[in-house]
Amino acid sequence: MVKIIFLHPDLGIGGAERLVLDAALAFKSKGHEVAFYTNHHDPTHCFAETRNGTFPVTVVGDWIPRSIFGRFKAACAYVRMVYAAAYLAWYVIPVEEPTLIFCDLISLCIPFLKMARGPFRIVFYCHHPDKLLTSEGGFLKKIYRAPLNWLEELTTARADKVLVNSKYTARVYQDAFQNIKDMPDICYPSINTDYFNTTVPKPLKEVVPVGLDKFIFLSINRYERKKNLQLALKALEYLKHALSESDWNRVHLIMAGGFDPINLENMEHYIELTDLVAELDIEDKVTFMKSPSDAEKVSLLYHCKALIYTPSNEHFGIVPLEAMYYKKPVIAVNSGGPTETIVNDVTGFLCEPTSESFGRAMCKLIWAPELVDKLGEAGRKRFETKFSFDAFTDQLDGILTRERQIISEVRAIEYEQRKKK
Hints:
Blueprint: E1 3-10, H1 15-29, E2 33-40, E3 57-59, H2 73-96, E4 100-104, H3 109-113, E5 121-126, H4 139-156, E6 161-164, H5 167-176, E7 185-186, H6 193-198, E8 215-220, H7 230-242, H8 245-250, E9 251-257, H9 264-280, E10 286-290, H10 294-303, E11 306-309, H11 318-325, E12 330-333, H12 338-341, E13 348-351, H13 355-367, H14 369-386, H15 389-420
Parallel strand pairs: 1-2, 1-4, 2-3, 4-5, 5-6, 6-7, 8-9, 8-11, 9-10, 11-12, 12-13
Helix pairs in contact: 1-15, 7-9, 7-13, 11-14, 13-14
């Protein structure tokens, strides 16, 4: 057994949070001791594993502001993580003596973690280069971002091992960080299927006021503009004109996603989406859910007919895997990570990010119920073959084994050097 520390900015509800928790579960399943350190953790807005005692969670630096008058969010996030890293270096690492520190999202913490003495190794999981996630701005924005972007590349290079979530992200990583010569390892995320297998889906009426006689499309994504949730609503409106009246009457869209009440964009975008539903005159066809629980998400995946996944250039995408495990076809944008998880016309449909393209794919499923079952079965087989939790666990355990071997070699060299003295 070894000790592993996870350092993550905000243990809320999202794909990055699900990834680090699944990695922690994978390490724990191998008998290792795991602990989380974070800048923010709200027990009312988090995954169950950080709330029910599965892992100890310590919050560090939440008193540091997230922004300054609504601006400088990236700089504040960097400062919060640096503070947490310095805290770990001074007060935690010397006492706990971890073998591995697993961090993600903000690489600036890495050199501060390395201030601590000890033969630990640092693994950095790059979901996507942060420099590419920021929105474009004017001259002042470029000046503000320039040092942050430079620091991101400089500090990412300090990690002992860098992992990325897809071949797509590996290519983006190489283009973004051209001064880093070492190639990152690809570690496809997975999902903790034990929870799915042991959770009994609730009757749909107990989750949302929608009958099982409906052909239910499901969208699960955070309420953020970059997730392009409007595409799902516009595709639904396309169906109004493409389907017969009887088929249209059967259709319903459930839009569920992470919603943080202290996140201004979440609140603004939720209002934008409800306004769009009213504008498109499809209010009786859409049900919104904010931050469904894990048990509610299981029920939604179980009862829906297909998943609608709308982000473009998504780094990977966990939700399509969850749908594939539940034998549901996935309709997604033909870019980014979904092109590696979904096989077009085999496990779902890869579409252009237009309402017409998505709408046509949705029509195919409505008109051919047997196709829903066929694509769903193929999706489950693909998940088991390439993205199972066992494969994910074995890959992480292999990385840990190699890092431990490096630690042993370093210790042996240090011992020989002391003998010579």
